[in-house]
Amino acid sequence: MHMQAHPEKYLVIDTSAVIQDRDGNTLVSMLGLDGAAVERVRRTMRNPTDAEVFEAVRNMDMSHSPILPEVMDDFMQKTKTTLNVADYAPDSGTNSRHKPNKDGRLPRHYGTYKLSDAFVRELRKKQAEHVLPGYTPAPFETEFRETATTCHYMQAWHQSGHRDQHDMTPSADIWGNSRVGVGHRVQAYHLQTSVIRRILRDVAEVTMSPEQFARYHSAFKAGRMFKDAEGIFLGQVTVSNALSYTHADSLDGKDGVCMSFSSYGHRGTMIIFPDLGTILRYDPTDLCVFRSAELMHFVTDWEATPMGPRDIVTPGRTAAVFLTPSATLRDLDGKRPDSFRNSGGGLFTWTEL
């Protein structure tokens, strides 16, 4: 679905869409539900709600997103496992984009979720099997909180305020607290999630111009800190259970592109582009490709779905945003593959021996 931007009014789009400026340049690509399938399903149902139609189409796997459910499940299981074992600092809501906006939305320091009725029944049944006659089963919690976290896996970037100093390093979340070397768990995470990273590279090849794709891909090969890592972007920002305020990502630079998607376990999310007067439905596995430095944007609040007895990952919204900062692209122009890794992540000046 191709839509022209009209900032004078908000346009709500529930399906896949491509938004272009007046010169035909693509600003946003949303790879979501197939619009034609939505209309076909709507005609076959009797007075359906939008939610019922969207759920039916998604169950038919009529989505333009290349991220299959099993791929998403695997990626998010490994992502949340890595976040948990790495013990990253909670998002304080005061030093990032995930804090109150001008409308006064309160920061979210944690997400909340409940066990499903089926899960509670199964737990009570299991409990009853192991309680001696005459004893009352102990109560158990059915509602939980999970800390909000923001993690930056940037294989090559400049510290805040250093963009003009050509002194790139990996981010602290990659180095680890000791700064002795790249954490083996983070390296394993990047290699274990190669499927998603290859998918994003393939999407970039068809959504970017040939020149832009070549520049991003060359920078990735020169700047990656993990020898066998695949993909197109050197950075991954993971946001778990946090809200965002209206912002643009200046690091990405003019014409810079990012890609983002989110986990299962939540509902009701939309992404809003105020400059374009556009609201896009943004469901789990939907892939959003957009010019993140040039477009103000934010994601609406969401509701966690109940946790079922077979769920492996806790409910709530965990989003992954992939990007390469513009200053990183600049400093890696013309560099040999793996040159940044061979310099010790910026520790040494790389020279060919």
Offer a concise description of the structure.
The strands form four sheets. An eight-stranded mixed sheet has the order 1-3-4-13-9-16-8-7. Strands 2-12-11-14 form a four-stranded mixed sheet, with no helix packed on it. Strands 5-6 form a two-stranded antiparallel sheet.
Could you explain how this protein is built, in words?
This protein has 353 residues and is of the alpha+beta class. The protein has ten helices and 16 strands. The strands form four sheets. The protein has an eight-stranded mixed beta sheet with strand order 1-3-4-13-9-16-8-7. Helix 1 packs across helix 2 and helix 3 packs antiparallel against helix 6. The chain is globular.
Give the secondary structure arrangement, pairings included.
Layout: E1 2-4, E2 11-13, E3 17-20, E4 26-31, H1 35-44, H2 50-59, H3 69-86, E5 110-114, H4 117-129, E6 143-147, E7 149-154, H5 172-175, H6 184-192, H7 194-207, H8 210-223, E8 235-240, E9 258-262, E10 266-267, E11 270-273, E12 278-281, E13 287-290, E14 298-299, E15 303-304, E16 318-323, H9 326-332, H10 339-342
Parallel strand pairs: 1-3, 2-12
Antiparallel strand pairs: 3-4, 4-13, 5-6, 7-8, 8-16, 9-13, 9-16, 10-15, 11-12, 11-14
Helix pairs in contact: 1-2, 3-6
